[in-house]
Amino acid sequence: MSYERILVKWNELDGLLREFDLKDSSTPGLRREVQIAHILGHFVHKTKHGPDAYNPLNENERYEYLCSQIGYCVQMDRIDLTNVRTRIEKNSKIYAVFFTLGAVARIYEVETQSFLLSAIDKINRHMERAAKRGKPWIGKHIGWTEKEISKLKSVKVYEKNAGIGPSGAG
């Protein structure tokens, strides 16, 4: 079996991404970020060290995309009480995005302060459980199910084949 056709297509894709001044196709999450930005009318951030996307009319309006397959948790990694505020408050909005078979199924827009309070509560609960076991909780990751996201101050802004979201999206 030869992978030549795949490699040719990847090289074509990398060339197209360069035309848009985007990262290369090996960047983790880039495909998902492009799918979400297309649906929501956002611009994908050009580097790994910025927000996931931003408003094309106002680059100071930044967005974080948290993604998962349906039935699993969206999560933030490398997070603890020392960085939770910075990691969340730098974003104007948080988007929890659930995929099925590589396609966006549902997108929730979550109010940043509501998400922050939930994150702090989750970190504190992790720390309490770890303390009961006599071990420190070293900030790794915290997650939210779709049900938990829907209970925060959030709005479902897109659902594939349900008429929710921008026309023509998906």
Task: Explain what this protein looks like in three dimensions.
The protein has 170 residues and is an alpha+beta fold. The protein has a single domain, classed as PVUII Endonuclease, subunit A (PvuII Endonuclease, Chain A). 35% of the residues lie in helices and 28% in strands. It has five helices and eight strands, in the order ααββββαββαβαβ. The strands form two sheets. Strands 1-2-3-5-6-8 form a six-stranded mixed beta sheet. A hairpin with an 8-residue loop joins strand 1 and strand 2. The longest helix has 21 residues. It is globular, with a radius of gyration of 18 Å.
Could you outline the blueprint of secondary structure elements for this entry?
Elements: H1 4-19, H2 30-40, E1 43-44, E2 53-55, E3 58-69, E4 74-77, H3 84-89, E5 93-100, E6 103-110, H4 112-132, E7 141-144, H5 146-151, E8 154-159
Parallel strand pairs: 3-5
Antiparallel strand pairs: 1-2, 2-3, 4-7, 5-6, 6-8
